[in-house]
Amino acid sequence: MEKSEAGRAIIIKNGTFITPFKKIEEGFLIVKAGRIAEVGVGQPTEITQAAEEIDARGLYVLPGFIDLHIHGGGGHDVMESSFSALNQISKVLVKEGVTSFLPTTITTSHEDLLTATQSVRKAMGRGTEGAEILGVHLEGPYLNTKRAGGQPKEFMRRPSIEEVKQYIRSSGGKVKILSLAPEIEGALGLIRFLDREGVVPAIAHSDASYEETLSATEAGLRHAAHTFNAMSEFYHREPGAVGAVLALDSITAEVIADGVHVHPASLKILIKCKGYEKVVVISDAIMGMGAPDGEYQLGGRTIIVQKGASRFKDGGIAGSAMSVGNGVKNLIRWLDLELPQIIQMATFNPARAIGEEGRKGSLEVGKDADIIICDQELSVKMAMVRGRVVHQESGGKTENMLI
């Protein structure tokens, strides 16, 4: 089957639609010019002539997942800084239901970060074949060596507004998130600068106290990278960075729901404290995601991906080998939440966290037609980006879904 062209109208009918704010049984959705033109119950009142039709009977129709924190996949790494690598990652992601993402850098030299941000800008201009790139997430280099995790300590340094200005310019103004340790010297000034520039300041790889994190939120900090991991833990006399993330409503919390980084009970605590509206499911995936088990690289170090876990040779966790789609499946098993609430954590919440909720993250009229069609186990049968079908599972019931 040829992939559809975004210029042709498409009608998706008979499916169960999760918008995610409501559930529509036996509904329909019309796509025109790459955007959602209508969503409703039953059959459309006017059938567009020459429209392609997708029969989604017995299937879920969802907004495409959005991954705000991903280092690689399909055997490729964001730090390869090439269109080929970013494009291949994008094609792996749509198979997992991710229709847009932020390529995420690691802590490295100034020159390498400039090259990486430039590559993201060029890839956005050229357009990827799979998931759409929305910008770049800079994880570091202004992190605390005490909480380095999988990040290279040798490149960690004090915050530099001048450096960040260059990253913003080289990305074409597309730096969406910068994750840093707010307790290090110069961090508060950088957070204020980022807030003025429309870049989301996030806490990551931090040994901050509760009070230091609170001061950072007053300066503009409003997001937390991979909550619980590589940050000062909660203790009843010193709540630490984790306690601040749990307690402060101003912070949106990322979480890696792979069962390796965070215990399911901790996920329940996070959602009880934050509410599902303030939680964002991420992958933090490295190049082994969507690829066979084996050895891969991250920041010049060897990683072993085995049985769904990604670790350094010494056993330390090194990113993940799962997709956001797999994280959503885990949350369905672990949490006592309705499906729309869980879907929101992978769609609308990440869109809102980076100011893209006006065009991404939900099945609403006027928004980009970023849509996935899944079976009852949330296995992706079809993925659409801006009205163009970029992935369709072959064989079985869905082989001729597009008619």
Description:
The chain is of the alpha/beta class. It has 2 domains: 10-62 and 362-392, Urease, subunit C, domain 1 (Roll), CATH 2.30.40; 65-354, Metal-dependent hydrolases (TIM Barrel, Alpha-Beta Barrel). Helix content is 26%, strand content 27%. It has helices at 83-95, 110-126, 161-170, 187-197, 210-219, 240-247, 264-274, 324-334, 339-344, 348-353, and strands spanning 10-18, 23-32, 35-41, 52-55, 60-63, 65-70, 72-73, 76-77, 98-105, 132-133, 136-139, 175-180, 200-203, 223-224, 252-256, 279-282, 294-298, 301-306, 309-312, 371-374, 380-385, 388-392. The strands form 4 sheets. Strands 6, 9, 10, 11, 12, 13, 14, 15 and 16 form a 9-stranded parallel beta sheet that branches. Strands 1, 2, 3, 4, 5, 20, 21 and 22 form an 8-stranded mixed beta sheet that branches. A 3-stranded antiparallel beta sheet has the order 17-18-19, with no helix packed on it. Strand 17 (294-298) and strand 18 form a beta hairpin. It is globular, with a radius of gyration of 20 Å. It starts with 9 loop residues before the first strand and ends in an 11-residue tail after the last strand. Residues 396-400 have low confidence and may be disordered. The active site is at 284 (proton donor/acceptor). Belongs to the metallo-dependent hydrolases superfamily. NagA family. Pfam families: Amidohydro_1. It comes from Candidatus Hakubella thermalkaliphila.
Topology:
Blueprint: E1 10-18, E2 23-32, E3 35-41, E4 52-55, E5 60-63, E6 65-70, E7 72-73, E8 76-77, H1 83-95, E9 98-105, H2 110-126, E10 132-133, E11 136-139, H3 161-170, E12 175-180, H4 187-197, E13 200-203, H5 210-219, E14 223-224, H6 240-247, E15 252-256, H7 264-274, E16 279-282, E17 294-298, E18 301-306, E19 309-312, H8 324-334, H9 339-344, H10 348-353, E20 371-374, E21 380-385, E22 388-392
Parallel strand pairs: 1-4, 1-5, 6-9, 9-10, 9-11, 11-12, 12-13, 13-14, 14-15, 15-16
Antiparallel strand pairs: 1-2, 2-3, 5-20, 7-8, 17-18, 18-19, 20-21, 21-22
Helix pairs in contact: 2-3, 5-6
